[in-house]
Amino acid sequence: MKYDIIFVGGGQASVFGAYEAITKEPSKKILIVDKGRMLRQRVCPKEKTDECVKCPTCAIIYGVSGAGAFSDSKFNMDYRVGGDVHTVTGKQIVNETISYVAGIYKEFGFDETPVGLTYNEKMEEIKRKCIENNVQLVDTPTMHLGTDGSRELYTKIVDVLLEKGVEFSTGADIEDLIVEDNAVKGVVVSKNGEMESYSSDNVVMGVGRSGAKKMMKLCKKHNIAYKAGAIDLGVRVEVPDVVMKDINKNFYEAKMVYYTEKYKDKMRTFCSNPSGFIAVEKHSDDVILANGHAYKNKKSTNTNLALLCTKTFTEPFDQPFEYATAIARMSSMLTSGKILMQSYGDLKAGRRSTEERLSRLNIIPTTEDYVAGDIALACPKRILDNIIEFIEVHDKVTPGFASSDLLLYFPEIKFRSTRVIIDKNMETSIKGLYSVGDSSGYGSGLNIAAVMGILAARNIVG
Ligand SMILES: Cc1cc2nc3c(=O)[nH]c(=O)nc-3n(C[C@H](O)[C@H](O)[C@H](O)COP(=O)(O)OP(=O)(O)OC[C@H]3O[C@@H](n4cnc5c(N)ncnc54)[C@H](O)[C@@H]3O)c2cc1C
């Protein structure tokens, strides 16, 4: 079967890419291939059993509409957040396309007013404290749909794609690319235990963080130009809402960047979820990662956010992905396949957390998918030192942050270690092969994934 465009991975980048292509050129024959299920069938058994039953293909991570389906859907309206594709395309086109995507959200009934557009006195005070403590506050306007709103939006978009004739092949794991004379000719997938191939002269690879390893494998096999990228490694912390009240109320999310005194490494806050919930990402039986989300209509009394260290390795080391995976495995070895959790008080006291010690705190964890233990047994010293330094600095901006009531869930990792070489149309060194979203190494958020998918689609449909 020959298609005009095949999108591999049905996440944010592909959904918006396919929407752009089919809207501009309704006659195009488009296929979206995804390892997971269709959005409506993406049901996590944990919703009923309250415990992860370790499905072979995790419905939270894999499936049509990607990581965005279960994300908090904070949509950042600025090129500085969510990736750095502007280093390839320039800033203006990224910002213009972000506004264009916000317009599509609006078409589907999501017309949120972004927060963070103007500063009140409280915000000025927070900014001043950041300046005093060498913290960069990346204050960009943000729309927030919530996990429930986000699912509703994607359900509507996917329904429109189906109506317009876009085809989906789900349960289909990309095995290989068909490349002839340095031009892409199609893809090979494994589906229900059999190999199937689909032809096309235009293949858009957007397999997200969950498919980043596969992307790297394909780059190596087909000599697709790439370079080793950075790895983001750290913890997801959970803190009582009252501590974060001023930031949550005024910014919803305050993105902070800090370079540590000790190692000069870059630390940043990421994906803050006021009144949110801790989420568990199961990449495989022994790679279990912490994450977080927040609903629009269901609230906890805790805020969670990631504290991540961006680590770029120097020669001769070129396996950041394997390095981060080994750390995740070490953590999972200590917990028999759960996330590792420790209170900041216990971490500083050099002792493991226990349920009994946790019960003395003011905070109740929003997940039960953890084992209380000692993060120092699994986290490299340099990363842990950076995390501790960042927590102490955060405390100066947000008094109460560095208390014993801060819970640390380990590990949170953003796998985007391959940076595929692309041009301003997202095309790789292989003709007709495009690389978009998180798995390209340029994206880490919904805004940039959608922008990249759209830019690739525009180039293909002209
Ligand atoms: C819990 C959580 C909360 C988040 N919250 C936010 C937020 O509030 N704001 C924000 O901007 N970003 C957020 N993010 C990040 C955001 O979701 C991603 O940056 C975005 O979804 C990336 O889009 P993508 O299309 O590149 O990849 P994804 O959306 O991850 O989609 C990748 C797709 O590829 C498929 N796939 C993977 N491997 C294969 C394979 N081998 N074969 C075939 N298909 C494959 C997957 O099933 C998936 O559908 C969050 C992420 C998570 C996990």
UniProtKB/TrEMBL annotation:
InterPro entries, alphabetized: FAD-binding_protein, FAD-depend_C, FAD/NAD-bd_sf
Residues forming coiled coils: none
Top-rank taxon: Bacteria
Domain FAD-dependent protein C-terminal positions: 233-411
Ranges annotated as spanning the membrane: none
Matching Pfam families: FAD-depend_C (PF21688)
Name of protein: FAD-dependent oxidoreductase
